[in-house]
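Table S2 (continued). Query chain:
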Amino acid sequence: MKRRQFIQGSLAIGATATFGGIVGCGAKGTEPQTPIPFKAGRPVPWVNWAGNQSCLPKWRHAPSSEDELLTILKSAKGNVRAVGAGHSFSAVVPTNDTLISTDLLSGLVSHDADKHQATLKAGTRLNACGPILESIGQAFPNMPDMDYPSLGGALANSVHATGVDYKSMCGYIENLKLATVNGDLIECSKTKNPEIFQAAKTHIGSLGVVTEYTLQNQERFDITEVNSIEPLEDVFQNMDALCKQNRHFECYLIPYASECITVTTNLAKPEDVNVGHDDPQAVNTLRSVFEATSWIPKVGANLYGFALSKALAVEAATIRTGPSYKVFPHERIVRFREMEYTVPAEVGVACGREIMETIKNKKLPLSFPIEFRYVKGDDIWLSMFEGQDGCSISIHQYGDLDYKKIFAEIEPIFWKYGGRPHWGKIHTLKAPALAKLYGRHWQDFHEVRKSLDSTGKFMNAHLKDIFGA
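Corresponding output:
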């Protein structure tokens, strides 16, 4: 029996035994799946993957070479934004002027077998990078758990995975090329244009369009991922040891449950085999049962938590093993909206506890699991991990449900613990608050930005808000 069917059946039995048959009465979602319709005679809408950001660009371009991109930039009208796969939840892309797709700037440029370095065009999707790198005997040291974004979009927003000994992917950039609004192509590294290099490693598309990256990789490798159900409090109490004992460790906190899902990933052993399967629809099972029980006055949330714990207690571990680029990412077919903050690593557990308590005490209508990860610190000016190791906590809500009220209740908790928002995720912070969070290099970044784009050509409304420009 599939895991999803088992959980759903177990929850239904638990609910029936406690209250005698409960039928689904959850409120239907009202959040629009696509926020802007197409109308004849108007520009074709651009809509992001999550369906919460959109625009009506008057001019669209898809350059297939650096020369073509530079020509476009020199003559571009209005505000200019670049877009990859459209997987950012924040409004980093929208412009009603010039939108540049990087899709055709894709593929391997060159590689160094001795150094395990490779130069990739910025429009290359992460799910294409794995096979490309494997063909030359290389692999990313670490990858996020979804591989749909483009390399350029992911790095511009400081994409990361998990692992106390591993930085965000931006921490592995050795060189890059930046196309500016003036039509210049600037080569950047630690020794060549070092300040621009430091700013461009996480730049949210505000400096120009990066055309290619040289990344420090490693020899290709196989890994084994084990998904288990563990008591949440045990995991919180042993968090340091779990992170140190495994190459990668993360967990998913399940609202109203006393258990969590743990994910440990280590180098594969010859005897490792796949057990069970990854179920991308499991979050829909949680939702359907939550909606069938949580509406009951006074006891709904407790009933859901009780039944969920009973079902999770007998869940068997699942194991996935194989090449790193196939095991790190997971299939994502359920649309959602996401808020993520990174708090200092030492307060991660305290922040996670308070979030779980707040959800329970305020009976927030949230059943989507909360992702909880650790990342090594770096020195990148606008990285969420600048100057400190971080604990990244991600709050999700289904794409057709209102996320705003839930995010509004939880976001102040992140502020309390000194959290920095992920640039590509939903948040409400403006320039004054962000300047304090990035005090060491906030001004340094903006001096570089203004030197490259003095008229604010790359600044859309969202960037003006977060940068105070």
